[in-house]
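hi! just following up on the protien thing from before. the input was this:
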Amino acid sequence: MVLNPAAGQADPDRVRRQIGGAFAVRRQGFDIVETTAGGDAEALTREAVRCGYRAVVAAGGDGTVAEVITGLAGSDVRLGIIPQGTANLVASNLGIPGDIERSVETVVNGRTVAMDVGQLEGGRYFALIAGAGWDAEVMRSATRELKDRLGFGAYLLAALRGAANPPSSLFRITADDQEFEVRAATVLIANVGQIFHAMLPLEFKLAPATSVSDGMLDVCIFSPRSLPDVATVLWKVASRRYGGDQRMVYLQAKQIRIESDPAVIVQVDGDVTGLTPLAARVVRGGVNVLVP
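and the predicted 3d structure came back as:
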């Protein structure tokens, strides 16, 4: 088990005790290691694969899950998830329970499914979304301090701060054999598209056809220019009215490259990673994950 003690708002000591108790009740042994910095989860997972573990459990947020997936790449070792982050969107999309007791039950007695993942040009994998532009700005604005205080509300606050005047850049997009330019606030490469949380009154499915098993990535281009535009786009996504609006453009591809003028920041599964260009490909069935 790879535990990120900095994830979420729970007390790490309490989390360790709960996890240990849940595994003990099920008479299931495990070894636990903790991360101290970015990249630790990937390195620890690679070592676990080398040592012959049957599964590696990510106990943390979506960023921890993404690092563990990168460490599992190319192996048959299964991925388990104990959601401990701020958003936990990977777990939510896979139907993995948010509480420790039931998520440990899933790790011990769940079934295994093959899940598509995205891979960046530099080698890193992602389970959720890689994005360029406004969404990455939101992730950067949702600081650790804000997340400790507000939890998921930190993302909502960061988004609201920019909603009155959304940014705009000229994006050059290559999606398989298609090439085009578009002015937009943000361009997303989505593997898993459902965004929901107890703090949100509605569930948002970013694109009409996102699936973890279709061998495709979804390109989502959002171009709101004002606060009313933002409200309209959000309402249409929430009500799943995806067509007939130039502020919302969707396509699917296996390989995608995004460039922009000027360069904009990039996020991968909630972690800000640098600036455009952003390039990714789909890896079909790239990780075997334990689900209920």
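The two ends are 18 Å apart (CA to CA).
The chain has a mean pLDDT of 86.
cheers
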